[in-house]
Structure formats: C-alpha cells, structure tokens
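Quick one:
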Amino acid sequence: MQNNTKKPSYDENEIQVLEGLEAVRKRPGMYIGSTSLRGLHHLIYEIVDNSIDEALAGRCDRIDIILNKDNSVTVIDNGGGIPVGIHPKLGIPTVEVVHTVLHAGGKFGGNAYKVSGGLHGVGASVVNALSEFMEVEIYRDGNIYRQRYERGKTVTNVEMIGKTDRTGTKTVFKPDPEIFEEVVFDYDSLLARLRQMAFLNKGITICLVDDRGEERVEKTLCYEGGIISFVEYVNRNKTVIHEPPIYFDGSRDGNYVEVALQYNDSYNENIYSFANNIETTEGGTHLTGFKAAITKVFNDYARKYNYLKENDKNLAGEDVREGLTAVISVKLLNPQFEGQTKTKLGNSDIRTLVENVVNEKLACYLEENPSVAKVIMEKAIVAARAREAARKARELTRRKSALETLSLPGKLADCQEKDASLCEIFIVEGDSAGGSAKQGRDRRFQAILPLWGKMLNVEKAKMRLDKIIDNDKLAPVITALGTGIGEDFDISKLRYHKVIIMADADVDGSHIRTLMLTFFYRYMKPLIEAGHVYIAQPPLYKITKGKEEVYAYNEKDLERIIKEKNWKKEEISLQRYKGLGEMNYDQLWETTMNPETRVILQVKLEDAVAAEEAITVLMGEKVEPRKEFIKNNAKNVAYIDV
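Output:
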C-alpha cells in the first residue's frame, strides 16, 4: 500500500539563521547548562568571572555581589572598567560589543588578560540575552558611563552621566522569568561558590549581600592563605594527622601550579582540581599528573626508608590518597577544556609541569619533615593491607549471570527485565513495607530490596572496605547493585539505573535516607554523580471527603490542599500514615511507585565542597560542629514530624 502522506519539505527555506543573541534565548541550555536553579546561578558566576579575570590581571581586588529585593542582581568590581570607545571593526561602543555579540572579548589574544577562565567570550552577552533587563555602569578615565539592554537588545546609547575618581564596572541584571523556571536565588549555594573563588585568589575580597529579606545578610570573604586556607576549611571538622597543610608551587613557560594537601584520619580522599579558577569536576591532565606523582614520591620514600621491604608490592594510588584532602590549582595561558562546560582540562604539557613540581617539592618536604612523613606512611601501609583484605569485594559484587542468581541477597525480589537502563530498585525500610512494595510493584522492571533495622552510619564508624562488605545491612545493597565499591566501583555493571530509597515520611524515615545517602556518597559516589540515585516521596496523609481521596506529602502540603479545596477540617477524614507498611499495596503503587503518578526526587551533587561539609558535620563523630549547625538552622525549620 502506498503512503500518500505528504512529507515535510527540507530545503534552503528551512534553514534558520538566528541573529544576535536569539540563539541564546532559543537554546539557553547550550550556554548555561539548564534553566533551573543551577543555570540561574550560572548567570551570576559569568559576571563574577569577568571581575575575577580583572583581578588575575592585577586590576581588581574587591568584588561585591548584591541580591536585590526585585530579584535582580548587582555585581560591582574595582577593576579597570570595560572600554567604552568605538570598536574599530564593528563601529559601535566596545561595551556594547561585549554585551550584545557572542564570542567577543579581550581573552582571545593580546595582553589584556594573560590568564582567564572566560575563553569563549560568551559570558556577559549570554547573561544579557537571558535577562529581562541589564544595566551597565562603567567607571573609567574619570567618567561614569551607562548603557541599558532589555532581553539582549540595546535600548539606550552609551551616555556619560557624571565624573568619578574610581575605576571599575557595575552590572545590574534581572533574570528573565520567560526563560527560567523560577527566579529565586539560593544564598547558601552562592556563598559556597564565591567562597571557593576567594580561596583560589588569595587576597581578593568578595562580599555577598542578600537584601531580599527584612534583615540584610552580608558575608565578606577574603583568604590571605589562599588554597592552604581552602584545605584547612575542608578539614576543619575532621581530625587531621599533621599540621599545617603541605604547600608548594612552581611554574614554567608562563604556566603556574600550586598544591596544598593535608591528611586526616578518615578513609576517604577529597581532591579538588581547578584550572584558571574553574573547577574541573571531571579532572584532567593536572589531576592525572598529581595522582601519578604523589604515588611515585611515597613509594620512593617507602623503599628508601624501609617502610616497604624488598618483596613487598608497591603502594597503590588509593593507599597513598586515603584520608587526603588536596587542592590543585593551575593558572595557564592557553587552557584547553573539553566542551563549553569546562569540566575537564586537556593540556598535555600541564601534566608534565604538575608531575615535575610534585615530584621535586613533595619529595623535598618529606625529607625535611620525617615526623610528618612517618604518620602519612604508616597510614598508607595500613591502607594497603586493608585493600588486600577487601579484594573479595570484586567477587561479592560481580554482576550475576543466570547461573549466579542464587548469590543475590535472599530478600531481594528481582525484576524480569534484563536491560539495566529500564530497571529500577526500591530500597525499602522494613519487612512490612517491603511486603507491600513487593505486592504493589510492577515486577517486569521494579525490584524490591527490604532492609531491616537502622543502617550503619559509615561516616561515624570509619570502616574500611573490608569491614563494609561484611556488614549485614550494607552487603545486600552492594550485592544487589552489582557495581562494587570504592576503587573497585564499575558503573557499567549497575543492575538498575534508578536506585530509589523509599522510607517513611517521618523523622525516622529521614534518618534512614540520610544514612543511605551517606553510604552512597562515601563508597559509591559515581552513582550520585551519574544521576542514578532517587528519593521516593510517600504521602504522610490521606484526606477523605465524601468519595474524594487526596494524598498530602507533608504538613505544608496538607494545609495547601485544604485551603485550595476550601474544605473545613471538621468535614474531612484524615488518616496519617505512621509508616509505609500501613498503606495497602495498591495505595503504595498509586502514590509512590507508579511512574505515571509518583513524585521522586533525583539526588544531585551540585557542590562537592558543600556536600563534603554537610556529610562531615551532620554524620561525623564530632558533636560540636553538629550542635552549632542545629543552633544556626533551627529557626529555619517550619515543619517537623514529632
């Protein structure tokens, strides 16, 4: 049978040419990652990055960021000020070129910026394109200049509005509600990122002000110690095994590297790498060079001073990095990042520079500080022995074939689907809830693993892998997921691409979720980084009025529903679920498990330093930091289950 449906034409008339900044508004995700909170914050970072570049060029030492009541943002620096003269090629003021033309900036060549993170020349123009309005004031050559834009388009000429004896740039912009899901900035997230910038640029003052509330909130950040202060900050709630942090730096051919490191008594490593102030979350050549060099230096030292005998195997990389907190920051003339997101550095010569600097300077430090070298070496030797004891993790967590399914946890109700990308596993608190979940699930693609009793707090227990895999609460999770843990982790062996933690909607359930997330963060972090971990959202209440049934997920939700439906409390029947086990299996399916109707929250790792701090403070062995956290945040808790 012939198909007479007319196919859409594809010719020269179908090729769209988006002029000016239209492309940015059409596809904002290509430029800022997303239109969620993360993308919203990215706008601020783009403007602040320009001010940081001024600081790197030696023209700026203070940056102020103000969150205004109308949800606009003001960024002020005391740099040189954006040039306002007519651009020789485009025939319009240079400040207008910077804010309305993509890939225009002073960072592609010349001497204005030797080192810069903003390489693509899209920062200011992208922020302009995605803002309801932007107004720029420039303090330069004794004059004050101003220009205004709306949704990327110039609406006023550059005009001189006064005289001044200062220099710098003031940018005010309001993110466009037509672009962003919600225009509400998160002060704490911004503070964490700006603190990071202050650490990486010692001596620069960054001030964040929140003017949106009834009371003005202000935080000034300035760290003369630079990345040494950064390492001390990350380790401030941990027990360190030597003080102060080890620091060294070096340069070659205009490229510069500095490293700060310090060991604590934990079994986890936290290494943060940066290139031109940009966090390279996927690492790159500088991180590779650092890891190779530190492993070589400690092995050479161990051989020289008989920590390792002739027949002993070399220490592995994970042995010498156990308990390590380190910051590697490189400043380079021509960085090569992989993609616009700049999360991985690709310069091959930087690996050589980092390796050489670490090999020389760290070896020298160990020779000059034998007492520090001794405590680090002893920790690494014990780690190596524990690693050998933990090798059975590979066998325990190997992905099971059809003949091996008997080795899967006995309580696991597996699914029928074999394609991991289509499968999901619910890790459920308690046998009774597990029973309801098993009855209510779609066995084609949903697996259920019930857990009983409180899980181990791995942050407090400080257990190495050999102990973790023997723990009766954790071993079933490790085995079911199939990925292994620690250095043996292999995400390609993940048996379910959605790992959903399903616990009661109360304080105990929150504790269970927190314990599980702590375990995943410490021993299976790539699961979180790849977006495979989710939190189920079971309802806390069932509201019945006549034949109508509605579920509320918390107290706030309950109040909202009653108000929206204009119900009187005496007219409704309210059932509070004390636990998942109280729900019928069909109710659990309808509210919490059915992909068509459920709400699940994806766990994301937005800020590695902030996540590390939260895990350490809330789940660690030190009580005082936790008390201080509760004291500072108790006033913000509006709803709590008692």
